[in-house]
Every structure is written in structure tokens, then in C-alpha cells.
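Onboarding guide, step 5: your first structure request.
Type a short instruction followed by the sequence, for example:

Predict the 3D structure of this protein.
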Amino acid sequence: EEPSGASQLFRLTPDGRSVVESDVESRSRHLAIRLLRDPVVREVFLAITVGGIDPTSNEATRSAMSAIQNRIVSGEIEGVEAASTVERRAQTIVAWCRWLLDHIG
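The system replies with C-alpha cells like these:
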């Protein structure tokens, strides 16, 4: 039995290992692909790129909050009840979308 607070051992998956061992451009491409697989990130990214929403605007955050709230209502996202958590997550998603714009353009 391990003592309380003992560190756990984590290992990279083969996919994770290939990312860590790759060059910066390949890591960025891999991260972009992974981010865009997330339905909320993809929806907000499309709203920004196709819908013309300014990624630095409050409208972008509202779009992300709406995408998150819709998935909470549908049951796709669970355990998020506080409005402040939804807003914080929305801001993070918008930041990821800005990162995508900077790195895949």
C-alpha cells in the first residue's frame, strides 16, 4: 500500500510519445487536429472563421457559452452548473481558437 500523497506514475501513449518527439511544427499541427475534434471548439472556430466573429470580442465568448450551454441541456456535458464555470470554459475555448488562428493560418 502506498503512503498517502504518493506520486502516481503516468506514461505517454504512443500518440503522445510521437508528439513529444516531433518538431514544433508537427506538434502544433497535431494539437490543432486534436482541438478541432472537440465539437465545442470546432463550432466556435467555425463561428469565428466562417461566421466572421472577431475572436477578441465578447461575441466570441457568448458564442462559446451558448455552445457549452446547449451541450449541458442535451446532456453531452455534465457537472457544470455554475455560470462562472461556463464563462471560464468559454473564455478558454476562445483562447484555443485564437491559438488555432495563429498557428494554422
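Each response can be followed by summary notes, for example: Helices lie at 14-20, 24-37, 39-49, 58-74, 83-104.
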